[in-house]
Amino acid sequence: MEKTIKQEFEKRFGGEGTMYASAGRINLIGEHTDYNGGFVFPGAIDKVIMADIRPNGTDKVRVFSVDINENVEFGLEEKDAPAQQWARYIFGVCREIIKRGGNVKGFDAVFAGNVPLGAGLSSSAALESCFAFALNDLFNGNSIDKFELAKIGQSTEHNYCGVNCGIMYQFASVFGKKGHLMRLDCRSMEYEYFPFNITGYKLVLVDSQVKHALVDSPYNKRRQSCERVAAKLGIDTLRDATKEALDAIKGEISAEDYFRAKFVIEEKQRVLDVCDALQRGDCETVGRKMYETHEGLSKDYEVSCEELDYLNDIARRCGVTGSRIMGGGFGGCTINLVKNDIYDQFISTVTHEFNGRYGHEPKIYPVIISDGAHKC
Known about the structure:
This protein is of the alpha+beta class.
């Protein structure tokens, strides 16, 4: 991939730039808790967006996407927003840096990635983090701190891409550390690295290759449910909610809002339980909590779909230690914690059975916990 990017840069712009990369991410547990002030437990993975970038001495940005085989040129004023969705991520990063008083000048860039699109691995956050890290290095002497880089990516999603996301995806892409997961307190922004030493196990993503399009944004609707319940409880976010307090107002809120909040409150505790279990080397408890999360996401939060529930069922039947839907939902991947001695059998079974039911094989992505945004 790096060789291809360099060749394209030479062909389109002459010479070479500086190479940067940022990772996609997994989240072992802690789904839809970030915008509720709770905890998440992500890690960066060995799937990246990589870009060759060089200042061009003008006020124009010229970018070529290898994967989409499309180029775009735009200015750096608000009125210059490009029409292409992929380019808006880069434009948004430029604008968010400028709005914060940072410097961005014209540059040329070629980028590509091996973060699977639509699989829930945050390819957009990897793209944002790659360019935010690069522009901080090239134009700002690395004066913007890492948390601000993550917030720049988050604000890009909010202001230029129409997704009211939490901070987790960008945090993981910026702060990722090889061999470690990170527990992030999404309220205080305090974080802690946890060694991810799971001898005898593999982490593997099974991508359904399904993405169910819905008329209105299901992500934003669920966020609104959580905000309504928090307001009813007189608190800022569901971070401070208890199951007892939720049950006390059950008759005053809709059933839908009740079950959304129930999931978030239970998931908050599961993250803490998994961190404790990992420190003890107790992968069985980790796996049990992953299955509980899948059940909650499917039944209470209603962000699963038939295909993902089927993948979860196969994992359970095969004796996989832990399995759950990962990401925002309605398609994408399951994340699976699998003992080495049943790994091959699981992959064979899930591939064969899923293909038999849905007419296409899922994609299989073994992942290794790796570093986040960096200069190559």
